[in-house]
Amino acid sequence: MFAQGRGPASQALLNNNTSTANSTSNKKSKRLSIRTPSETGRLRTGLIHKRRSLLDSLGFPKQPEDDLGVFNTRRKQVMPEGNSNQRLDHRRDTRRRTKAAACQPNFSSALPIAPRIRSNGTHDFDPTVILLSFDGLRADYLQRGLTPELNSIGQRGVKAAYMEPSFPTLTFPNHWTLATGLYPDHHGIVANMFHDPELNADFNYRMPGQSWDEKWWNGEPIWETAVHHNQKSAVIAWPGGEALRKTRPTYHLRHRREMTVSNKLSAVLEWLDMPRDERPQVIAVYISEVDTVGHNHGPDARRLNQALQVVDAALGTFLAGLRERNLEDVVNVIAVSDHGMAHVDLSKAIFYDDYIDPGELIHEESMLPHLAIRTKDPKKTNEYYETLKRAQAQHHLNFKVYRREELPAEFNYGSNSRIAPVVVVVDPGYVMTRREMGVPVIGVHGWDNSMPEMRAIFLAQGPGFPNATITTDGQQQQQQQQQQHQQQQQQQQQQGDEKNGSVTAIEIEPFENVELKAIVARTVGLELPAHSTDGIRNGWLTRPC
């Protein structure tokens, strides 16, 4: 039904390919079978019943893991000996792991393992995942009734109440976190613009010529991990995807203003139509429309709602393309965002040029709405720190002043020399700016990553996730047929609900975006080396491939 050869668009994509993957390992990927400690704890009562109900409806027998739960997170923590930096690192690690200890249901331990090779009826497909990132799509936008196609991904699979971005909640730091599983403090893209004192060089996301060099980009993005495991990968416009690294994605379409969301998603379908030995298994796509409108018009504007509808319509066309190819239950689709958006106005502007000389700063705007203070004359750094501390205390201003090493542990941010020596963190809704500049946009992000308006989305469907219909081989189809008499009523009810748009998604608790790389990796059977990411759950959500 669908030709395996390359059409004109497919050929154009290949012509646009900037490089071919340099595979350095023939090692076959293998599935991890060791559960993380957080997966062996006590599940909360509501989640136990919710999951048990799901498994019963699907006809799966009860597993021993169903009665396991979460750890007691109140046990006493022992502070190690060492200097203040070592103790600070311990506190940060302890807080992060304690926060994540109330883990999600371990679906992978109870649901069946899907076969590695799946068929759409005419062609075989290796495990495949499509990662779609919608820049600036705030978690509660999904509740506006404007995104039925996006919501349908969660209805057919799983969704998180929200995904917590990393601090600072800016585009480039968080997209590289999504790709690598590392906090900005660890992967080095600490802001959209910053100075590296060791390289004596500046990073500016608006200047590719000086910022795409691999010296800036630490960690290994998921598309490189795929190539290292002999899988093909493809990237469209992803921040960092154009970095000139030794290993490149197999296919790459660079960011261009004229490329619409429809163009990008059509390109993905073209890749899926390729022959099996040319087809990418890991595809990452960046979509910017919602963020752009959010900045210019604010998160509550009519134009923002229109942008949501435009993006959702394009997504609907893409999902229809998957259904036409009989791929809805063959490939995995993950929809995420990097951060949210909040309204800001002049009434909440703090003019720092009333207290310090902006001309003495390097990259003063690099952490908007916050202020990063790295002075041209290092001697002035401490002077400005004291000046702003006094101003805050005297005038009760809505910000806090930190030395780099004093930043709150929950930020997981403060050990990288690329972070300015002094950081002024404003309260939610406020912004540090100069009087002559004012507030340049209506919608802003970058605030504390725990702020509700900064929350991101996570929805996923496909054979690698719970609640998905699996395309199986003949033997497993026979096994499913034997269970049909137990499932028929539930399936008919679910199908009726899907037509009416009333399916209730499996909703899991929030999690940090450093967990995403492992989730993506497991959907295509990739094994990540221990401690290669800052996540601690090892793709707990997915069915092992």
UniProtKB/TrEMBL annotation:
Gene Ontology molecular-function annotations: nucleoside triphosphate diphosphatase activity; ribonucleoside triphosphate phosphatase activity
- Spell out the InterPro entries in the cross-references: Alkaline_phosphatase_core_sf, Phosphodiest/P_Trfase
Q: Tell me the domain of life.
A: Eukaryota
Where is this chain compositionally biased, Low complexity type? 15-26, 475-495
Q: Which SUPFAM superfamilies match?
A: Alkaline phosphatase-like (SSF53649)
- One BP annotation, GO: nucleoside triphosphate metabolic process
Give a Pfam family name: Phosphodiest
UniProt-annotated stretches for the region Disordered: 1-47, 465-501
Q: What is this protein called?
A: Uncharacterized protein
* UniProt organism field: Actinomortierella ambigua
